[in-house]
Amino acid sequence: MAKLRCPICGKQFDPETTDAMPFCSRRCKLIDLRRWLDEEYGLPMPRDADEDEEDEWKVPEDEE
User: Fold this and answer.
1) pLDDT in tens, 4-50
2) Cα–Cα distance, 8 to 18 (Å, whole number)
3) How far apart are the C-alpha atoms of 27 and 45, rounded to whole Å?
4) DSSP 3-state assignment of 54?
5) The pLDDT of residue 61
6) Is residue 48, in this structure, part of any structural domain at all?
7) Model pTM score
8) Domain that holds residue 7
9) CA geometry: angle 37, 40, 42, nearest 5 deg
10) How many domains does the chain have?
11) For a tag site, which of 34, 36, 53, 57 has the least CB within 10 Å?
12) Cβ contact 7:20 at 8 Å
């Protein structure tokens, strides 16, 4: 069977012997989850000028 390499620790493992795919262990799976939750990972988002204007908070005219 072909071995895979864990993206967290780099260890080679047999994918049929783990419940934590694509990781070698539950520990590596939880390390990856923590990195997402701590915002160490992120997805690139394109920004354009129109979106910047929408992000600003505006007071409705009837409340001024």
Assistant:
1) 999 999 999 999 999 999 999 999 999 999 999 999 998 888 877 55
2) 14
3) 30
4) helix
5) 75
6) no
7) 0.65
8) 1-41
9) 85
10) 1
11) 57
12) no
